[in-house]
Design goal:
7 helices, 13 strands, four-stranded antiparallel β-sheet, alpha/beta
């Protein structure tokens, strides 16, 4: 099912053309990354897809369905506690309080922020506020989730954590996001649209990449890693080794490591 289609669409603001001659079709279930340099028009394209902007030339058709939108910057100095804020936003969309509380706690657990539900948002970190913004959009059970630079300003470990959490909520709806980080593009997108000067200059479907797990481990001796099949490894310290393994083999490898007396320091899944 087509959820967005544009035919030679453009957008003009204050007499200035910010999007030009866009022809694009996006179907339900796609995971689309919109990338480009700062000022290229990628956020404007995202807003056009979501109906925040209306085209001033050409044709645009949007499918029926609910759209959740997460802006790049979460509002500052919100005095509400996180759960209070999410309840307020959710009620504005017609949800009952009992239903909302169940959803809030479900997503807070997925995004690992349950301990912050009663914390004022203005005291939360950027990463925690970013997660609250995504939960806010998910509360309406969207058919399309639009994310504007969701990893901006987050450290690498928080980026990986947020990416894994976004992947875990994949329930068949469409996700469209702007990004310049290869981590998010490689880990989530199956299609990449590149924008420059308000025009689409590339639109590529990505081949599905295998999922890998990166394991950092402290080993009792340097023969342990060499005895385990299906892995690549290198030592970063005398007894600390980084291992790369296909996700399908990771449980077996972790078992072998633990049985050999190793200590797992870090475990990350990537594509």
């Amino acid at each position: 099912m087509i959820i967005f289609e544009a035919d030679k669409a453009g957008k003009k603001i204050d007499g200035v053309n910010i999007l030009h001659d866009l022809s694009i079709c996006i179907s339900r279930g796609e995971k689309v990354a919109i990338t480009g340099h700062n000022g290229s028009g990628k956020s404007s394209l995202l807003k056009l897809i979501g109906g925040i902007y209306e085209n001033t030339s050409g044709q645009v058709r949007r499918g029926m369905g609910k759209t959740g939108y997460v802006p790049e910057h979460f509002p500052e100095n919100i005095r509400f506690k996180m759960q209070e804020y999410l309840l307020l936003i959710g009620k504005m969309n017609g949800n009952s309080e009992s239903e909302l509380i169940k959803k809030i706690h479900k997503y807070a657990e997925i995004f690992a922020i349950t301990n912050f539900l009663n914390t004022p948002l203005k005291k939360c970190s950027k990463g925690t506020k970013q997660k609250a913004g995504i939960i806010q959009a998910l509360l309406i059970d969207p058919d399309i989730l639009l994310l504007d630079e969701p990893l901006t300003g987050l450290d690498e470990s928080t980026q990986v954590e947020l990416l894994n959490e976004l992947a875990s909520i994949n329930t068949g709806f469409t996700i469209i996001f702007t990004a310049h980080e290869s981590l998010l593009i490689d880990g989530l997108a199956n299609r990449v649209i590149t924008v420059a000067n308000g025009r689409i200059i590339a639109d590529d479907n990505k081949e599905k990449k295998e999922k890998y797990k990166y394991i950092k481990v402290i080993v009792p001796n340097q023969t342990v890693a060499s005895e385990i099949p299906n892995i690549r490894f290198h030592y970063i310290e005398e007894r600390t080794v980084e291992i790369t393994v296909l996700s399908e083999h990771s449980d077996e490898v972790l078992t072998r490591l633990l049985e050999s007396g190793c200590s797992i320091v870090e475990l990350i899944e990537k594509r």
